[in-house]
Amino acid sequence: MKVFGKGPKIFPIFLPNLGCKGTCVYCNQRVMTGEELLAPQELARNDFSKVDEIAFYGGTFTGLDLNLIEDYLKLAPEKPKRISTRPDAITEEVVALLKKYNVRTVELGIESLFEDVLHASRRYYDEGLVRNVIESLKKDFDIVAHLMTGLPKDSSEKSLISTLKLLEMGVKTFRIHPTLVFAGTELEKMYRSGQYEPQPLEEAVITVARILVTIESHGGKVIRLGYHVPKSQNGYIVAGPYHPSFGDLVRARLVKEIVNSLRIKVAYVPGRFLPWFTSYGNNELDLTLIPTEGEEILLDNLAFVEAESLYFQRFVKQTIFKSAHVANLDFSEVSTCKS
Ligand code: SF4
Questions:
Q1: How many angstroms separate the CA atoms of 296 and 213, rounded?
Q2: What's domain 10-255's superfamily in CATH?
Q3: Which one of 69, 77, 151, 239 is least enclosed by Cβ atoms within 10 Å?
């Protein structure tokens, strides 16, 4: 099993679809991840001494039988743990176990705060439940919210409003996944029968770029843009906005939008960020690019995050406000959008 990532060394354990009460229309984790389920006894043979954290991905960790939850969490008890689950599978008993066994981070598959979108994906909870769960978890755990775009009955405006509401609930860290159609899912049937149309790649990139700037301009961070689909599983993607470098596409698009909208003339860019300014058509931008040795991007005299905030205030917020109003969406609790 591979330990990856530049930051803390995370030992990932995949529990494909384990603990799920039903199957969401877009989900088939065996083909999405290619991972096999391993029991706690098999996992205990691993050497965890060199890892910083053990993460349980996939499935609904807190939906498992309490004894099984405990068996998994007893692996290397001294190591911090990260689990992924969904908001309607959190109970007081489970929270007590998570605290007892050194769980530091709870990744919550929220996906949307719109009931019509959630129900169309066979996820039967609502915004009120999500709010309560976040409130009950946030003092003891770091929360990572997962959001999806392009679900059945979804729209870019709904995705942006869900993002803003989660920021207001105190969530700071996100993973954003555009919906892909995988083989063997209900969504594949819906797609083949014409009931579901995937987001085109261009629309997914723009939507996710706007979600990204919304999060970063409110002090949050995004730790994943787009699904990581192992090469071996690419053949199971039937349709949808898949790109192997989706995150770079989004970053490059955001740079383009900011530079054009704010009429930026000079960018001072540390080497590791240069591809955002030179790839995916951005070498055509009317911009003087000055590579630097520093750590921070400067756009004219603005730090990158200041430019993001300005772009959010002047353009994204207005777009959300107008579209949400036209589509009669609920933005009453989104104070950022009140004008
Ligand atoms: S999306 Fe999550 S909750 Fe839904 S079936 Fe897949 S693993 Fe289970």
A1: 17
A2: Aldolase class I (3.20.20.70)
A3: 77
